[in-house]
Amino acid sequence: MLAKGCHAVDADQLRAARTALRDSAPLVHCLTNTVVQTLTANVLLAVGAAPAMVDAPEEAGEFAAVASAVLVNVGTVHARTAEAMRIAARAAGEVGTPWVLDPVAVGGLRFRTDLAGELVALRPTVVRGNASEVLALAGAGSGGRGVDSTATADDALAAAEELATRTGGVVAVSGEVDVVTDGTRTVRIGGGSVLLTRTTGAGCALGALVAAYVAATGDALGGAVAAHAHVALAAEIAADLADGPGTFAAQWLDALDALDGDALGEADVRTS
Amino acid sequence: MLAKGCHAVDADQLRAARTALRDSAPLVHCLTNTVVQTLTANVLLAVGAAPAMVDAPEEAGEFAAVASAVLVNVGTVHARTAEAMRIAARAAGEVGTPWVLDPVAVGGLRFRTDLAGELVALRPTVVRGNASEVLALAGAGSGGRGVDSTATADDALAAAEELATRTGGVVAVSGEVDVVTDGTRTVRIGGGSVLLTRTTGAGCALGALVAAYVAATGDALGGAVAAHAHVALAAEIAADLADGPGTFAAQWLDALDALDGDALGEADVRTS
Amino acid sequence: MLAKGCHAVDADQLRAARTALRDSAPLVHCLTNTVVQTLTANVLLAVGAAPAMVDAPEEAGEFAAVASAVLVNVGTVHARTAEAMRIAARAAGEVGTPWVLDPVAVGGLRFRTDLAGELVALRPTVVRGNASEVLALAGAGSGGRGVDSTATADDALAAAEELATRTGGVVAVSGEVDVVTDGTRTVRIGGGSVLLTRTTGAGCALGALVAAYVAATGDALGGAVAAHAHVALAAEIAADLADGPGTFAAQWLDALDALDGDALGEADVRTS
């Protein structure tokens, strides 16, 4: 039990997480949607991790078993990649490799909603989505109309806590203020930029960064928080330098690269 | 019948179209090629629309029925995505949702040429391609060698008019001067930049923007013209700021975002 | 037999290769991984070549037979695209069209390693990979953990020479210094920038550029060397202008475009 005033994730942990990420250069096996593969790989390279996209059923299990972490994102899933995702999630679970589920647009479409239900039963280390997706995944809503969401992250807090308790892992809800919970402790991360929502794949790449940080730190809650803080702080720097959504993307990658542990320690992270 | 001097698409309509696009933020369901998905999504986000790429046969019909508009682009089509395209086009037609066909490289390759013939029979709201593709689709040519085209847009005008009459929709032919026709009225859009032809996916993203504008305005001809004018004007701004094709792409997204209705009203649009 | 002091690839050849590339604008048929398709297409467009990504089994042979060159990259291969690759490689071989094999992550994963063995038996004009991949393909190593490699290019020289002798073609090994060999002559290319390794798809796009230059020059060794030199020199220019990996990518495309034959003639190319 946490003492009053105790911080679930404090500045020292954030600083240490950044160092651990650079030192360990985790190999993140991404089974993700084809719209965001390039940005996801570039975000992982920018922060010092190593990306690999392998989504053939013939290879997904073999690769998940040797990767540092696995990302499963159902954004453009179809029959073949769904099978690869099931295999990779099972392989990760068997060897104790952390894996992240990003339930893109779950709730609104039956095929992926059924698949996401199967994947949740395999107990992802972290679920990362927007409020509509987390509400739908927890059985508390009907989902949004795609990757956007009209609910705030806090609207999904109860659903996130329930889902975290069910998986034994962590659930992260993205929004203007991000909410990350393990079912008991809740951390909120502020900052960021609206330009993240105007860059396709920024949220999906955040899911990959969560996988990388959890692998580097061995801490699902702390790793997920560090990833959200890293993305938010880099977005603020990039927004200052950008003239619009096109120039923002390049500046964001530069800022993700440059951001060090001291800077990450200054993130707007509040535990409750 | 149009009176002499009447403008099929005038400056007031262009200004109103830009406002309608921002206000309605149409959800564009893109079944498009994997080379251009990222740029297409970012172009839609830049102008204020919402992209969603869903190309599993299990989901394509369900999603097309709730989207504001659908784009079908056969650039990297194969058996599974061809099936998803047939399903999405039929679903859009059944509920009266506008949909755009982009017949990339049709004419030169039998599989996609047969598919495009099937799709044309489903009467796309707008067909958008280059001159070679439109000539091939109308049965008047053998197609180009891929996404490029040596014919001018006006070389394909008769074929475009015939095709528009057959589908009951609009046909847009991209070129140094773009030509858009509903079989009766013809609108030409000048301007733009040669750097658009050196950015992979610029033409494909234009197809998605046509879908967005047609959904926002409820006007196939006016929406298609507004999309072409928006792309052309933003390209001119970006070309002035860019040092080459790499820096152009980011500047183009910034300019697509910034361009407002008053600017769009100044586009080089001529009706005949 | 080469006389002492003879240069396998000299500055005049490099200058002529750049001119030939611009003049012939070769159509490069890319069967490549979905992470890097966009960058690959943009690199080909930047240098003056024409990209086309066609990876349906129904179309791959028909298109390979009319393309100027073919690229086969197994980065995200699965059953359908593997079949398209076999068909395209056979079609290219039958009509004498040059084709390049990029054995991404071969060695570590059985499915693609078996496929790469089949493709090598079809005698690619050029094999381009990192040291781990070339060692694995030659049967001399177990591969790396993905697209990265801890061995230097020269560590793989003996394997590359053996492989080149077996295929009757050229083998190019990327590293801090690149090594290109036809089994008899060896050329080393220096320069470049570490930022290339932090840009997803830079190596894969290099494979496409090798295909373009071999088509333009009709010279497997000289074309492969010119492609490596072009990439390295443009990277140096871009690294000077960039603030990080995000801004680097755009600057690199600009520099690939701007680099002319005189600049290419100044590349750090050494024959032994």
Automatic annotation (TrEMBL), chains A, B, C:
Single Gene Ontology MF annotation: ATP binding
Keywords carried by this UniProt record: ATP-binding, Kinase, Magnesium, Metal-binding, Nucleotide-binding, Thiamine biosynthesis, Transferase
Organism domain of life: Bacteria
Reactions mediated catalytically: 5-(2-hydroxyethyl)-4-methylthiazole + ATP = 4-methyl-5-(2-phosphooxyethyl)-thiazole + ADP + H(+)
EC number: 2.7.1.50
InterPro entries (UniProt xref): Hyethyz_kinase, Ribokinase-like
Pathway per the UniProt entry: Cofactor biosynthesis; thiamine diphosphate biosynthesis; 4-methyl-5-(2-phosphoethyl)-thiazole from 5-(2-hydroxyethyl)-4-methylthiazole: step 1/1
Cofactor(s) listed: Mg(2+)
Residues reported in the UniProt entry to bind substrate: 53, 201
Family: Belongs to the Thz kinase family.
Name of this protein: Hydroxyethylthiazole kinase
Organism phylogeny: Bacteria, Bacillati, Actinomycetota, Actinomycetes, Geodermatophilales
